[in-house]
Amino acid sequence: MKNDSLKEIAEVIKKAQSIMLFPHENPDGDALGSCSALCRCLRNMGKTAWILTDDDVPANLNFLGEGMRTLDENIIEEPDLCICVDCGDPGRIEKRYEKFRAGRKTICIDHHMSSGFFCDYNYIDPEEAATGQIIFDLLRELEHKPDKETGEDIFAAVTTDTGDFQYSNTQKKSHLIAAELYDWGVDFNKVSVEIYENVRPEKIMLKNCAMATLKLMGGGKGAMVSVTQEMLEKTGASMDESEGLAQDLRSISGVEYSAVLKEYEEKKIKVSLRAKRLGNVATMAEALGGGGHIKAAGCTLKMPIRQAEETIEKALSSAIKELEQK
Q: Cα-flanking dihedrals φ and ψ of residue 292, to 5°?
């Protein structure tokens, strides 16, 4: 299977009048920034366009897609086109999948490794640092006139998925896009403050609770923490405010692998995995039923938190041993 071209996808979009965009569950900056940029473009083209989410977005990302997001699946009863953005797996839009399939045509735009195409039109490029970079190219095919707000959406997408241009996935293209966005009138400081310096006290308290569970393994090459429902109740924080913990762990001197376990339900533990320089967490996640990128991946374990901790500790220890043998 091969991708359709962005030009072909643009032609499909141009012919549609009502369009719904679907970011993945628990949307991050790339998913929301990409959806917001595309939605603005579609509305500027005179189309009816909405971003459908299945839950609230993190407080620091609430500015993305504001006025364009909805929880109402029936806001467009029979969409001409449904587009999943930053999501190449139907399991990541599980609650909205029936609505997604209701689109007369479907498109997938993503940069995550995928086991296969599931839409009428697909553009999946794991070589791209962020889906926002693909959307940037798509906007050109749609002949979008550059503007400040759309540029800020694109910048938010790229800066979050490249770790503010620090992660190893950052490309020359990432910087070139940022450079071009200066000409769009983007307020980079405003976007950065919204994303990185807009933290509720409850998030800080949750981080303190999670860090109290810190466990190092493999001579300090692996690090793991857990976030439980008890912690959320104690601090008044929401689970989305646990975002960033994996990066915090990876920043510890000597740590190559990090894992954050999030207890959503008694037997539903979502795991965020990160690698610093030499490791590969994509294969680790795949072995546990998940997936993702080489340096950032995840999975869901249907077991109690303590059993999940043992499972992940074993996986991390094994990965560290393999790394030491190379």
A: 145, -150
| Burial of 76 from C-beta contacts in 10 A (0-12 / 13-18 / 19+) | buried
Mean pLDDT, the chain, rounded, equals 95
Domains within the chain, CATH numbers bracketed: 6-196 (3.90.1640.10), 201-325 (3.10.310.30)
Reported as half-sphere exposure (CB side, CA atoms, 13 A), residue 137 has a value of 17
State the Cα–Cα distance between residues 280 and 201, nearest whole angstrom: 33
Task: List the beta bridge partners of residue 49.
Answer: 19
pLDDT of the residue at 167? 86
What's the rounded Cα separation, in Å, for the pair 158 and 176?
Answer: 11
Strand ranges in the chain using DSSP code E only, listed in sequence order = 18-23, 48-52, 69-70, 81-85, 105-110, 121-124, 215-217, 222-227, 257-265, 268-275, 291-292, 296-301
Single-letter code of the amino acid located at 151: G
Q: What is the DSSP string of 66-85?
A: TTTEES-GGGSSS-SEEEEE
Q: pLDDT of 178-199, one tens digit each?
A: 999 999 999 999 999 999 998 8
Amino acid at 195: I
Q: Check if the beta carbon of residue 237 is closer than 8 Å to that of residue 203.
A: yes
Left (φ > 0), alpha (ψ -120 to 50) or beta: where does 256 sit?
alpha
SS3 content of the chain, % helix, strand, coil (to 5): 45, 20, 35
Kindly report, residue by residue over 42-92, the tens digit of the pLDDT: 999 999 999 999 988 988 999 999 999 999 999 999 999 999 999 988 989
For residue 324, which of 233, 201, 218, 200 has the smallest C-alpha distance? Answer: 218
Q: Cα separation of 51 and 82, whole Å?
A: 10
Residue 277 CB-density burial (10 A; 0-12 exposed, 13-18 middle, 19+ buried): exposed
How does DSSP classify residue 273? E
Q: Write down the H helix ranges in 79-165.
A: 97-101, 131-141, 148-161
Residue pair 51/23 in contact (Cβ under 8 Å)? The answer is yes
